[in-house]
Each structure stands twice: as C-alpha cells, then as structure tokens.
Amino acid sequence: MRPILKSNKLDDVCYEIRGPALERARTMEEEGQKIIKLNIGNLAVFGFDPPDEIVHDMIRNMHGAAGYTDSKGMFAPRKAVMHYTQSKNIAGVGIDDIYLGNGASELIVMAMQGLLNSGDEVLVPAPDYPLWTAAVSLAGGAPIHYVCDEGAGWLPDIDDMRRKITSNTRAIVVINPNNPTGALYPREVLLEILELARQHGLIVYADEIYDKTLYDGAEHVSLASLADDVLCVTLNGLSKNYRSCGYRAGWMVVSGEKRHAKDYIEGLNMLASMRLCANAPGQFAIQTALGGYQSIADLVGPGGRLLKQRDLAHKLLTDIPGVSCVKPKAALYMFPRLDPQMYPITDDQQFICELLSEEKVLLVQGTGFNWIAPDHFRLVFLPNSDDLTDACGRIARFLDGYRRRHGR
Questions:
Q1: CA–CA–CA angle 58, 62, 65 (5° rounding)
Q2: Nearest to 323, CA basis, from 334, 333, 311, 332
Q3: Which burial class, exposed, middle or buried, applies to 9 when counting CB atoms under 10 A from its CB (0-12, 13-18, 19+)?
C-alpha cells in the first residue's frame, strides 16, 4: 500500500517545546524514571492554581455552557475585554473588534490564516515563541526572523528589523513580555517598531499574554496604546496571568487604523464562524478574572513565589562556570547562554537529550525557539524552590561532566 504522508504544508512547521526530547522523556517515565520537566509553562502541575472565584463562576454557569455562543464570543466576556483594553489605553475598540478563542494560540493561527498568501513574509523575533513561526509557515507565508540583542537585554534590533523588510512583508510580530527571554520592551522601542510599520504599511501583532507577570515593579506598555494610525492586533488570555492554561480562554483585539483592513477583518469573521465558537466554559471565566482580585501581583511582588524562584534560578544558573543569563523582567522563563569556548555544542537538540538521559531534567534547546546558534536553552522556573535547586544542581553536574569530556 502507498504510505500515507502528512501534508507538505507541515514541512517547515516545528514545535520543539513538545518535540523529540519530550517523547524520550515519556518513554523514560513509562520505564519508571522520574523526570523534572522544565520545558513548558504549565502552571497547574507546579501547584499554581487559578483564583477560586474563576473556578466557582465556571461551575455556577456550566448549565448554560452546552450551546454554541456567538462566533466571536459571548457579550459579557467580550465587554470585559473591551474594558481591559481601555484600562491599557488602547483607543477605539468596540465589541465587534474582539474575538474570543480557545486560548491565544488558536487566534494566532487564525490571524495568520486570514492574512497570508504564498510567499508573503512576516517578521518574527529570534528567539521567538515557536507557534508564531509555525503559524506563519502553516498559512503559506515565510517567517523572517529579526534578531533580539542579548547584549541589550534581549531588545529587538530595530536596524536588523528594518533591513529585513521587503515588498513581500505584511506584518511584524512583537512578543512583549517576551517568551523565552523574559525581556520587557520600553516605550521607546515600541514606538520605533510602530514607526517601521507606519512607513511600510504593515500590521503589528502584539502577543501580550504575560502582561501582568512582571517583576521588580516593572510596568507593561501595550503596543496598541501608542498608535491609532497603525493596524494592531493584540493577543492575550487567562493561561498565564490567571494560571488557567487548560481553560483555553484567550482573546484577540483589532485596533488602530481599520478602514483599509475591512477585507482582512471579513476574513477573520469567516474563520471565527467556521470554528463555530470558542469553548463556552472558558468564556465564563474571563469576566470574573479580569474584574476580580489580581492575585498574580502577590506571586510576582516582594516575597512572592514566582519572584523568589526567578531569583533562585538565576543565581544557581549563573554560578555555573560558562553560563550567563539576562535576568528576566517578566514571564516564567530564562534563556541562559552557554559559552561556546567551554561548551562546544554543535547540535543542541542532542545536547538536551544527553542531559535528559544522564540527569533526568527536561529543557528545550535554544534553536527550538528559532535562535541562530546552538548555545542557549530555555528553563521554566515554576518548580518549588527545593525542586528548582535539585534541577539546577543536576544541570550543573551535567555541564561539569561536559566540560571535562571536552577538555575545557
């Protein structure tokens, strides 16, 4: 029989956060081995529970969640999102500009499917959250990676971004706060990105899913709040700030200059209708979450668990010879660099698999985030302090052995 092959649309699609190393980890677990998983920001498995009022409201409203909703979402949660955009100083947003989705991930894919023709280009950061690169490729577009500068605190290199704009460029993706680096972009950088978009007639997609997960008193500026003459699409949701990953409750807000985008918006409406609606139970969580007590502040503020674990992980990693790391200002991750002179890695996926086999710690290699060299990895600092100390100790032991094996 002829082999049944996957679509060639998937040839350039990868998602290493759930890639081969995770498959190897599953096999090891089936053999009875215990793996410390630092590969994904899945808060619930590390004891970060959603606020009680969200859970209770979902349970209370479950009897009304069996039917389809409006294709863009229920009115009340969309209105709550509208009020949230107003609190972020994003002007001119009405109910019809808001789409609810099964997490921001669904909406990212939908936004790219509605925009791109074959050969269209989208500027995506390197490193990036790899779903953006995958979504562009799956939609038939070409992801063009602009470099974020580690020496400048992982801020986007505006000159590199400018050089990579061509006649085929349709949009710029901005991930702020950033996954995987934990960078938080200042107003000045956002204004420079908007000016590029203005000059070249580009859409700006702003992934702001970590906009409340901020450390050391940092403040987040929503990109769409800085321009009303550039088409901006802002994505957010409950997964991270409200520890509700599995609820799959996200939203997408279209703002700015919409008059010339009527056809694209019609396409988004078509795609929203085709999937019928986002899951109703998750929609019931949105209004309560946005209007309730913002308990994320307790986790990231002085004495908060996330702040303590960020500081602990950063110290433990940077105490390892040859490991440096820009301290995250936001989000749940850090993206350490391994000195290539001390760690001559040529295949960082193999490096991660060796670490997994020897020390039973699962990370994601830097090239899995479309970074340009095999000299970084991403670590999730969600485990409690004891487990985090154990994991970093295992990483340090592995790296010590790696240096010895390579005569460093």
A1: 110
A2: 334
A3: exposed
Give the whole-angstrom CA distance, residue 173 versus residue 114. Answer: 15
Candidates 163, 165, 162, 123; CA nearest to 142 is: 123
The pLDDT tens digits of the residues spanning 58-114 come to 999 999 899 999 999 999 999 999 999 999 999 999 999 999 999 999 999 999 999
Buried b (16+ CB within 10 A) or exposed e, 384-403: eeeebeebbebbbebbeebb
Query: Residues 113, 116, 122, CA angle at the centre, nearest 5°?
Result: 110
Report percent pLDDT > 90 for the chain: 91
**Tokens 């002007």 belong to residue:** 91
What 3-state class would DSSP assign to 28?
Answer: helix
Q: Which two tokens stand for residue 182?
A: 């934990």
3-state secondary structure 213-280: CECCCCCCCCHHHHCCCCCEEEEEECCCCCCCHHHCEEEEEEECCCHHHHHHHHHHHHHHHHCCCCCH
Neighbouring C-beta atoms of residue 110, cutoff 10 Å: 23
pTM reported for the whole predicted model: 0.94
Distance CA(212)–CA(218), nearest Å, equals 10
Sign of CA dihedral 208, 213, 215, 218: positive
Task: Please state, in angstroms and rounded to a whole number, the distance separating the CA atoms of residues 375 and 109.
Answer: 29
Q: What tokens does 5 get?
A: 């092959």
